[in-house]
Amino acid sequence: MSDLDLLTQSLARNVRHWRAVRGFTLDVLAARAGVSRGMLIQIEQARTNPSIGTVVKIGDALGVSITTLLDYEQGPKVQIVPAEKAVRLWHTEAGSFNRLLAGTEAPGPLEMWDWYLMPGESSPSEPHPTGTVEIVHVTHGELTLTVDGVDHRVPTGASASFEANKAHVYGNTGDVPTRMVMTVSVPPVP
Asked: Cα(37)–Cα(62) distance, rounded to whole angstroms?
């Protein structure tokens, strides 16, 4: 079984599991996530590979991290994620990418990401649930962080935190690649 097949099967199993844990019908989850009922059926039957945006919306609606949705085994309290097992969920032909390094539920989803943005590229993100906080730390280059339409420059060695319940964009307007580490903390579903 390929890595993609393994992820597709894991996503199907975990979406079904967490939907049952939350007591959501397909219609309720579709409405909460802003994803069609048909798409959810395809995901739960492992018949499609949804976009990262769709997986994020489903995770947010279920109150679990992307790591939890893509986890293909229940691990011990200490979970080591080897570098080669970090999941690349977004990339461009120019060489920009992000990798989900690790995640947990504590008490809501908590994720750590590795981002690499080539000059002139950006990645937009829709608003997350109220109470979601993101922290970025730039290790190379400069990040242009746009939150609710306002640009903020984050140079090498600097960090920024922000409430992520507004539209935001991670961008590189400089001449050299930008590398950053980002954490995302989503509040648990009530």
From this structure: 15
3-state DSSP call for residue 187?
coil
Q: One digit per residue, pLDDT tens: the chain, 190 residues?
A: 677 788 888 899 999 989 988 889 999 999 999 999 999 999 999 999 898 889 999 999 999 888 888 876 543 344 556 677 778 888 899 999 888 776 666 667 888 899 999 999 999 999 988 888 898 999 999 999 999 999 999 999 888 888 888 999 999 999 999 999 999 988 877 6
pTM above 0.70, yes or no: no
Strands (E), the chain: 87-91, 97-105, 109-117, 122-125, 133-140, 142-147, 150-155, 159-163, 168-171, 178-185
Full DSSP string of 101-145: EEEEESSSEEEEEEEEE-TT-EEEEPPPPTT-EEEEEEEESEEEE
Cis peptide before 50 (omega within 30 of 0): no
